[in-house]
Amino acid sequence: PFAMQHFNRTAVYGLFANLATSPIADFIMLPALALGAFLGPEGLGAPFMAIAGWGVDAMLAIGHWVASLPGAVRTVPSAPEAALPVAFLGVLFVCLWRGPLRWLGTPFAAAVLLWPRPPAPDLWINEAGTAAAYRDGRTAVVVRPGVQTFGVESWSRRRGLEPRDADPAGWTCSRYACAPAGQGAPVALSWGKRALSDDALSALCESAPVVSLRAVATRLPPACDGRLVLDGRDRERGGSVELWRMENGWRARWSADVRGDRPWTGGS
């Protein structure tokens, strides 16, 4: 449950990989290491160390093969915060209690897996306004591949989504902005530090229902009516943001609302 909650990855075939590599470790690698260490001072340990190395290579080959199988690794969205303590208590109950009643802790031990997840956000924008990703089925389409990669991948997997680079053919990008060329993407992004002209901002607003600006917008042109425009002032107060598309607009969840007002959060 800890790896599932914090790293959002679970190895589907991990048990089979362990069963396949255990005989190699038990009957080849470990005995060879012991003999190599024992005979090493006499200058006779090299052949046994070589055998141990072959065992390690075989174990790694099995691990790589299992990891390459279709569906070998599954991305799991993080459960609500209460799920992990419940799972920990369930595991303790199963391990420490005696008698058949201990199996009553099994559903609680699996709380991280079984706990219902809220719907994944439709859109995420980082706190600097320089990176964004939007949900497309079970994937998170990355608007600017290679920018803020760690943040994008962490958010995507926390929400149970696999990151995927946006198709360059579907975007019109300049040095400081990207706008969707069609109707599929919900966001247009400008990461320049200078305020945009009315024409440039109008073009972004006409391309997507959500417009993210790194700079502060002093005024909005008529083309931005009915659009959600987030600028540097919003991010300074709220940090990164997750957005859900609702019937009457967008629902936002800012990182500052989650992390609280603490000395290390910049007074957000």
Number of strands: 13
Count up the helices.
Answer: 10
What percentage of residues falls in helices of 4 or more residues?
40-55%
N-C termini distance: 32 Å
Largest sheet: 6 strands, mixed
Could you say which overall geometry the principal axes of the C-alpha atoms support? elongated
Order of helices and strands: HEHHEHHHEEEHEEEEHEEHEEH
Please state the structural category: alpha+beta
> What strand line-up does the widest sheet have?
6-5-4-3-12-13
* Rg, alpha carbons: 26 Å
Oligomer status: single chain
**Domain tally:** 3
The overall pLDDT, averaged over residues, is 90
Beta fraction: 15-25%
Detail the poorly predicted runs.
none
Describe this protein's structure.
This protein has 268 residues and is of the alpha+beta class. The protein folds into three domains: 2-75, no CATH class; 83-114; 123-265, no CATH class. The chain contains ten helices and 13 strands. The chain has helices spanning 2-6, 14-39, 46-68, 83-96, 106-109, 111-114, 149-158, 198-207, 232-238, 255-259; strands at residues 9-11, 73-75, 123-125, 132-136, 139-142, 162-165, 171-173, 177-180, 187-190, 210-213, 228-230, 241-246, 249-254. The chain has a six-stranded mixed β-sheet with strand order 6-5-4-3-12-13. A five-stranded mixed β-sheet has the order 7-8-9-10-11. The longest helix is centred in the N-terminal third of the chain and has 26 residues, at 14-39. The radius of gyration is 26 Å and the shape is elongated. The model has no long low-confidence stretch (mean pLDDT 90).
